[in-house]
Design brief:
The structure holds two protein chains of two kinds.
Chain A lengths: L11 H31 L5 H4 L5 H37 L4 H16 L2 H13 L7 H27 L2 H9 L4 H31 L11 H12 L2 H31 L20
Helix pairs in contact in A: 3-4, 3-6, 3-8, 3-9, 4-6, 5-6, 6-8, 7-8, 8-10, 9-10
Chain B lengths: L1 H5 L1 H34 L3 H15 L3 H11 L14 E2 L2 E2 L2 H27 L3 H9 L4 H31 L11 H11 L4 H30 L4
Helix pairs in contact in B: 2-3, 2-5, 2-8, 3-5, 4-5, 5-7, 6-7, 7-9, 8-9
Classes of the chains: A mainly alpha, B mainly alpha.
Chain lengths: ~280, ~230
Amino acid sequence: MSASVLFDAPGPKTVARHRIYSVISLVALLALVAFGVWKMYDAGQLEYALWEPFVTPDYVQYILVDGLLETLKMAFFSIIFAVVFGLVFGVAKLSDHGWVRWPAWLVVEFFRAVPVLLLMIFTFFLLAIGDGPLTSFWCVVIALTLYNGSVLAEVFRAGINAVPQGQGEAAYAIGMRKSQVMTSVLLPQGVKIMLPTIISQMVVALKDTSLGYYILAPGLTAVGKPIYQEFGNQVQTTIVITALYVVVNLILTWIATIVQKRLVGEKNPLELSRVGNLDGGRNV
Amino acid sequence: MDAVFSNFDEYLKAFGLTIGLFVVSGIASLVLGTILAVFRVGPVSVLNKAAAVYVTLFRNTPLLMIFIFIFIAMPVLGYNFKFVEGIEIGGWNVSAFFFRACLALTLYTSAFVCEAMRSGVNAVPLGQAEAGRAIGLTFAQSMNLVILPQAARAVIPPMTSVLIALAKNTSVAAAFGLAEATATMRGFTNNNADQRIGIFVAFAIGYIIVVEVISLSSYLVERKVRVAR
């Protein structure tokens, strides 16, 4: 039997047919790529002058230092704060006291349902514009903290719930207090399960830093504009900056996979979508 | 909140555009994502790899960069999508802005739709197909009666997450000149800076309603098709 539920193991005839399909689709894909390249060539977009800024040390430094570094800094701060936020609210959602649990639920659900960009604009108008105390850099960090923190709160809650029940019961049985059970039994084991999901969430945070474009925050999306305004190389700038994002995200995903293999083994990671789910309002 | 209530028709129009973006790009990305998923799980290895590359590329690219590519870079290559301006659907003129925003959202979301579909297919244990063939069902029967019904049920929760994310992602169109909810919120706040908290809450509630309607309808569908095991 084949390894897929969708089709049987192919016989010799089917193998031959698949070979023909492969050739046809390969030709079609190559034609598509060739058309793209030809279109670029036709529009004069492959000329060296338009790509030159990206091999000029000054501009490379500008992109990497003012762009990539700022983006990474924003992502770094927001993920650190989001972990703290998520830890507090995730544990609060597991509280035995209704007056702690319900407000925490409300906060988490609110920030998960509101678009990050809306949050960013709000924090920008509230804290940065005019003579506000913060720069737009920190507005991006705050908005991303609130959103990713709420997602992580769910991750923490699910991760703590994923620790086998006997662990908590055993801890209570040997006389530990509630806070001791949480901090010295449930959380340490839960973190192991959650870590890959937390790293995947970093990819989301990194991607969302690009939204700072709308509130004039620094970062990769912001450094593109002056470059293409000076050289008129919109296509090239977009390609280079997108490539930078993709490479950084792939590195993060790769780290998440390694951590997953080391800590959790071949088991499935936590079943939480990378894209902020609400799951019909139910508790998973 | 005064500013919102005195301009309530503008508020509704803004969310109308948000929902329009959501519906059009949602349907388009379901179609494109399904095609990609067919390639992704199908037996032809070239298409399989091509779909995998597409998914990896678009899942790791910020949506904003796709918007920038379509709104700023594509016109340089000679694609400004002005040809849609003449089309009229139900007395409503399609604008090039709307078309381009939907294109960007579709390209981005279809990668996630593809992954959701694939996870649905992967959720069906191999033993189900084997058991179906063992009791003498033909291939088509085992597909229609055993595999696809189970896969369709498993797809609903991840697909809901994708659609909710899409509804929230329509807000990115605000940065590119579409007067949808987020852009309107910015405009309101600009004009009435003293009411910024009320305006934010009003628009946030609008988004929460959109999101809750999606997740509630998914919950109802899921409950309707649920099978006791």
